[in-house]
Design a protein that fits this description.
This is 2-isopropylmalate synthase. This protein is an alpha/beta fold. It is built from 17 helices and 18 strands. α1 (24-37) packs antiparallel against α11 (265-276), α5 packs parallel to α6 and α7 runs parallel beside α8 (209-218). The structure holds acetyl coenzyme *A, 3-methyl-2-oxobutanoic acid and magnesium ion (MG). Magnesium ion (MG) binds next to loops.
């Protein structure tokens, strides 16, 4: 197995994401987590960029013990000096210096000839070698550089003292085949290439950062650079978690491994997301909210029978507790039944089919069915089919500004009689509840009333939770409906019915709230 070093640049290139600005304590927090993740190298910043960057690189270098810390510097002595001052107290001071090599950058940005670029790179590496035990040199925009020139400059910086050669696809222009070929070419055309390790640093402008990084590994790169969650300049860097997991899952193919503590991936991803404010898309590989969620019936059935039918990465591998079978309109009976069992809802086999029909009807109107929806479905069924005491038939509530809210309610009572009452209250709900209290036998003391929407958007259902004391029993009830008043009425009667059921049957319903 080839050992691949993981070079994390979340705090340098990652922080170059537009809109991201981490303060010192946030950077220290991320660095600590990167150490737990066990990356090999942390690029903590660009010390010459600002006082803030200098001091965070310095503090991280002093704090981190289990991995090497590096900082970026241009081919300028003052940048290298700043990097040394920031890094010298670290466990393994390492410089990352770079110079662009492509014709576009030479001509328009650096305004240097090929010879000047070679001279500048060589002088800066020689200068750095007097201070740093380890120097990484990067040929910025390597993937758009003439290969013979790239081979020439790489040979010269190796001779000047560089131990790691990084070949960035700075603007995410390369294709996997092309980019892999650059590594192959240099291995064949640079005489001193065996003295150094080769590193890959890819950007995702064309969505090929991961494929390009892996192509580099296939062609001899032994260090992979990237950022957590793929953050970074423009479309971002290669997502380190994706590379590490790809190498792990496909070790049969890549014959390579990293020392990463993969179980820390999920935690690292959410920390970086929270502190940078860069939200992780739900469908993002490895760390997205949906990465281990199965929504459709056929997939859910497969996963329930054997996870590996649709799951190539086990969630536990990356520190996610478990997969999830999201119930929605695409789900089937297997997943539905499985979730009911997990919730401890004992529904007889013959009931499942009936319940499943109601589930599908509701699921058609909602984006996602929550556990509460399922509990409400089952409870509603139990109460309405097995134990029908008070049943709500009709509610009418009149409300207007400067008017007394009035409710009229029609119920079917315990003995199948029709009960009709009217009442008022300070608000619509109070009017409804005062009226319902007139309908049922015995007094009721409402202790708590809570309402929330289940789901988001206009199709959300109202879910009402009530707690009350009825017949000396403290009980609770839930009501689910598209209308707030109907849900409130249902919750109220649900609680009342539970008490009657308990009193009658001498046992509580198996569901507790
Ligand atoms: C591909 C990458 O991600 S590279 C890293 C990018 N990261 C950053 O730029 C973040 C930190 N940068 C900064 O804070 C600032 O750009 C500084 C402090 C480094 C420089 O600031 P300034 O002196 O104001 O220069 P400015 O940023 O406007 O321009 C960059 C200069 O560096 C030169 N330069 C660019 N790369 C290099 C290099 N590797 N070696 C030497 N000079 C370089 C440019 O040609 C330009 O020179 P010029 O002023 O002679 O035209
Ligand atoms: C500084 C270098 C390594 C870089 O970030 C790039 O070329 O993308
Ligand atoms: Mg970069």
């Amino acid at each position: 197995m080839q050992k691949i070093k993981i070079f994390d640049t979340t705090l340098r290139d990652g922080e170059q994401s537009a809109g991201v600005n981490l303060n010192l304590s946030e950077k220290l927090e991320i660095a600590r987590q990167l150490e737990r993740l066990n990356v090999d190298i942390i690029e903590a910043g660009f010390p010459a960029a600002s006082k803030g960057d200098f001091s965070s690189v310095q503090k991280i270098a002093q704090m981190v013990k289990n991995c090497s810390v590096t900082g970026l510097a241009r081919s300028v002595t003052s940048d290298i000096d700043a990097a040394w001052e920031a890094l010298k107290d670290g466990a393994e001071p390492r410089l990352h210096t770079f110079l662009a090599t492509s014709p576009i950058h030479r001509q328009y940005k650096l305004k240097m000839s090929k010879e000047e670029v070679i001279e500048t790179a060589v002088q800066s590496v020689k200068y750095a070698a007097k201070k740093f035990p380890i120097i990484q040199w990067s040929a910025e925009d390597a993937s758009r550089t003439e290969l013979p020139f790239l081979a020439e400059i790489v040979e010269k910086v190796i001779q000047a003292g560089a131990q790691v050669i990084n070949l960035p696809d700075t603007v995410g222009y390369g294709t996997p085949e092309e980019y892999g070929m650059i590594f192959k070419y240099l291995r064949e055309h640079v005489p001193s290439i065996d003295k150094v390790s080769l590193s890959t640093h890819c950007h995702d402008d064309l969505g090929m950062a991961i494929a390009n990084s892996l192509a580099a590994v296939e062609n001899g790169a032994t260090q992979v650079e990237g950022a957590i969650n793929g953050i970074g300049e423009r479309a971002g860097n290669a997502a380190l978690e994706e590379i590490a997991v790809a190498l792990h899952i496909r070790k049969d193919f890549y014959q390579a491994s990293t020392r990463l503590n993969l179980q820390e991936i999920s935690r690292t991803s959410s920390l970086v997301s929270k502190l940078t404010g860069m939200v992780v898309p739900a469908n993002k590989a490895v760390v997205g909210k949906n990465a281990f969620a199965h929504e459709s019936g056929i997939h859910q059935d497969g996963v329930l029978k054997e996870k590996t039918t649709y799951e190539i990465i086990s969630p536990e591998l990356v520190g996610v507790q478990s997969n999830s079978l999201v119930l929605g309109k695409h789900s089937g009976r297997h997943a539905f039944k499985n979730r009911l069992n997990e919730l401890g809802l004992n529904v007889p086999e013959e009931e499942i089919n009936k319940l499943f029909v109601s589930f599908k009807e509701l699921a058609d109107r909602k984006k996602e069915m929550t556990d509460y929806d399922l509990v409400a479905l089952v409870l509603d069924k139990k109460l309405s089919e097995e134990v029908s005491f008070y049943e709500l038939n009709q509610i009418q509530v009149q409300y207007g500004t400067n008017q007394i809210p009035t409710a009229t309610v029609t119920l079917t009572g315990i003995n199948q009689e029709t009960i009709q009452e009217a009442g008022t209250g300070a608000g619509s709900i109070e009017a409804l509840y005062n009226t319902l209290e007139k309908c049922v036998e015995g007094s009721i003391n409402l202790l708590d009333y809570r309402i929330q929407s289940v789901g988001a958007g206009r199709d959300a259902l109202a879910e009402v939770y009530v707690k009350m004391k009825y017949m000396d029993v403290e009980t609770s009830g839930r009501g689910l409906a598209q209308d707030v008043l109907e849900a409130s009425g249902k919750a109220y009667l649900n609680a009342v019915n539970r008490v009657i059921y308990m009193k009658n049957m001498g046992r509580e319903l198996s569901l507790t709230q």
